[in-house]
Design a protein that fits this description.
flat, 11 helices, 2 strands
């Protein structure tokens, strides 16, 4: 299960998405996430899903690899869906014992599940196609205007990039610790929820120790190389927009305009499965 988490990992291949400027990928991801919270019906989600499938196809990241990353959020997905399914008021569809499922609850649960899946998938595509160094440079350039307000843009970008990079490393470390303790007789599967939670304590202690040790080693390595962030820091590979990057912005703009026009047209016509 831990190896199925793809967020923060980089998938090495040659594709149009991999060659894009990181600023384009960061901006596209932000706009895509915002669009998911603005759509209200099946047409908007269909357009968002089609756009996401188009990006996945261009990225050349295997679809099975992306789907494997969804296993880690199954519990969250089920919790959100069930919560909306039973607690949304409206016209009753099914009633049993003290519970009532409404048509509005079914609609909201389906849309919530679709939104969560597309949100995680879209964010994963960004990290799968962008190296940590490019991600840091892209964040720093996009947040550049915040320097006016004395925000340490470079430091914030570096911390966010390191945090994403440490996700797969800590997951791999957790997997190794679990296997080592299971070989010594530890049981993480049996028992009730409280017992399972208690069994994780021996796992968390060495994991935190390992995380602090890795953080210390990283800090020492950066100091040994005389690393200094912030102003007057040169770039080995400076970010430069190319024709494909401007074309990508045009595609994103077309997607947003298409979604807005389609939703307004559907609302004007009465829609289908519309809330």
């Amino acid at each position: 299960m831990l190896r199925d988490i793809t967020l923060g990992q980089y998938y090495q291949t040659d594709s149009v998405i991999h060659r894009l400027d990181p600023r384009v990928k960061l901006s596209t991801t932000i706009f895509f996430i915002i669009s998911l919270f603005l759509v209200n019906g099946i047409i908007g989600y269909a357009i968002a899903g089609g756009f996401l499938l188009f990006i996945i196809k261009l990225s050349k990241v295997p679809f099975k690899y992306i789907i494997r990353g969804m296993k880690a959020i199954i519990f969250l997905l089920l919790f959100a869906s069930v919560f909306n399914l039973f607690l949304t008021p409206g016209e009753p569809a099914v009633s049993f014992w003290r519970f009532t499922i409404t048509w509005e609850g079914i609609e909201r649960a389906v849309f919530m599940a679709l939104r969560l899946v597309m949100l995680i998938t879209g964010s994963s595509i960004m990290t799968l196609t962008t190296t940590p160094n490019n991600l840091t440079d892209g964040m720093e350039r996009l947040m550049g205007p915040l320097r006016i307000f004395k925000v340490p843009v470079h430091e914030v970008s570096m911390m966010m990039s390191i945090a994403l990079r440490f996700i797969p490393i800590l997951l791999e470390e957790t997997d190794k610790i679990m296997k080592a303790q299971m070989a010594r007789g530890a049981d993480f599967e049996s028992g009730n929820l409280i017992k399972k939670a208690k069994s994780l304590v021996p796992l968390l202690v060495p994991l935190f120790i390992s995380a602090f040790r890795r953080a210390g080693d990283l800090a020492m390595a950066m100091e040994a190389r005389c690393y200094r962030g912030g102003e007057n820091r040169s770039k080995m590979k400076p970010l430069v927009y190319r024709k494909r990057d401007y074309l990508s912005y045009a595609v994103v703009a077309a997607y947003l305009v298409t979604g807005v026009v389609a939703e307004r047209a559907a609302a004007a016509w009465g829609g289908f499965w519309w809330s």
